[in-house]
Amino acid sequence: MKYLLDTNICIHFFRGQFKLIDKLQEAQIENCAISEITLAELVFGAENSSNPKKNYRLIDDFTEDLKILPIFNSIHFYAKEKVKLRKSGIMISDFDLLIGSTAVCNDLIMVTENVNEFNRIAK
Question: What is the DSSP string of 14-74?
Answer without folding.
Answer: HTT-TTHHHHHHHH-GGGEEEEHHHHHHHHHHHHTSS-HHHHHHHHHHHHTTSEEE-SGGG
